[in-house]
Amino acid sequence: MTDPFALSSYAFDLPQDRIAQTPAQRREDSRLMVVDKGQGVAAHAGFAELADHLPPGALLVANNTKVLPARLLAVKPTGGAVEFLLLTPLPLLEPKAVGEEFRALAEGLVRVSKKPKSGEAYVFSPDLSVIVLERGPFGRCRVELRWQGDLAAIFERIGHVPLPPYIRRADTDQDRSRYQTLHAAPDKPGSVAAPTAGLHFTPEMRAALSAKGFGWAEVTLHVGYGTFSPVREADIRKHHMHAEFAEISPETAQAVAQAKNEGRPLVAVGTTSARALEGAFAKTGAVAPFRGWTDIFIAPGYRFAVVDAMVTNFHLPGSSLVILVSALAGRETILDAYAQAVEREYRFFSYGDAMLIR
Question: In terms of C-beta distances under 8 Å and separation of at least 24 residues, what long-range contacts does 303-308 make, across chains too?
Fold first, then answer.
């Protein structure tokens, strides 16, 4: 019998050409695989047909975080290249005014030809520099940001979209719009990766869902770079999940509680929304407003307290995300669905197609 706690139990063959390198021509043009929990694939459809397959009266809960163009590039005076990726969500910085500039401590990934040294300063524009304070593992560094003016505007002006490592190309102007959900809140610029299940939704599609009686609510979970970190433990129970900052507003908590009380299914739009909802419940023991960090690791055997169904993309072999969806649908159900997805040439990962688990 296959061990559900063995990392090897979540491996599958994925040809490189199944990994989407660019988005579909239109957001709603993605394909949709419908999977019934514990049973198997129920239908193959287009994402625009989502309403035909959702549980009646469902409340959809999406992640409204905004992807920041958090990747900065520069050249040192010696001619060497410098790359910096801000990991601390922008809304969580605590700026202090020093003369005409602002300063704030942060965490980021620093990539240079030689290992960065404490005290090294990198100038990315006349109004923004980064000083290394302490070097950590895997390129992570504690840094001090120094800037003048509006920091978010500076990143928007000079930053690059932090495309996932499996998209093997430079970012383009198209990624500025397409690697961002259309419901991303302007005041939530905190993610270094998109909540990709939400990329498929358009305002027209949301209006159609509403007209058919489906509800919509939003949470915030600032997606960290740890979402791309592999599970390294052979026994997944030993895996330590990275922490991400989540917020559930009083309005969303009320909408979720009402849906649960009325017996209406709750559909998480993406694994990040699921982690926000389940992580908040684990901390508070109730469906309630929440603002704080969650490092919840959802694996088979986990009992979902809030989420009944999920819209999600297709995930990396052996990742915490494929383990999460296995906890919801069943490991064998997911692996069989993924085998069908490979055979039927579904597009995988961030710019890929979608799955509805119900």
Answer: 304/278, 304/328, 305/278, 305/281, 306/256, 306/260, 306/266, 306/277, 306/278, 306/281, 307/266, 307/267, 307/268, 307/274, 307/277, 307/278, 308/55, 308/58, 308/265, 308/266, 308/267, 308/358
